[in-house]
Amino acid sequence: MIQPLMTIADFQLLSEAEVCKIMLQDEGFDAVLADAELVNTNWFLGNAVGYIKLQVPSDQAQAAATCLQRVRAKVKQSHEQSAGDEADVCLSCGAEMNPNETACSACGWSFETNEENEA
C-alpha cells in the first residue's frame, strides 16, 4: 500500500531544500520536494502555497524529522564554533597576523604592493 506523504519541513530557498532532501535520501529516506518548481519560478507564490515542502512517507516521518533536526543542530554548532576561529593570516607563509599589521612578523610579506614600497 502506498503511504501518504507528510511534510516535515518547509523552505523558502530551493538550494536549502535540495540539500536537506539529498541528505535524507543518503540516510535511506524516500524524500521528495513539493512545490519546488512553482516557488523557484515565481517566489511571490511561496507564501500562498506554503513555500517548498520536504515530504516523506508517513511511516518514515518521525525518524526523518529527528534525523533532519540532528543534522541541522550539528551544522549550527559547527558554524558557531568556526565564527570565532577566523584569524588574519599571512598570505605568504600562513602565520597568524594582528589585524592592525600590514607586514608579517614571521616572513616580512606585506599587503603593500611594490609600487607603494618604492615610492
Structural features, described:
- The structure is a single chain.
- This protein is of the alpha+beta class.
- It has 2 domains: about 5-85; about 85-119, no CATH class.
- The chain contains 5 helices and 3 strands.
- The protein has helices at about 15-25, 35-40, 45-50, 60-85, 115-119; strands at about 5-10, 30-35, 50-55.
- It has a 3-stranded antiparallel sheet.
- The protein is elongated.
Cα gyration radius (Å):
24 Å
The tally of beta strands, per DSSP, is 3
Determine the structural class based on helices, strands and strand pairing: alpha+beta
**What is the approximate shape?**
elongated
State the end-to-end CA separation. Answer: 80 Å
Separate helix tally = 5
Largest sheet at a glance? 3 strands, antiparallel
Strand percentage, roughly?
5-15%
Instruction: Give the neighbour order of strands across the main sheet.
Output: 1-3-2
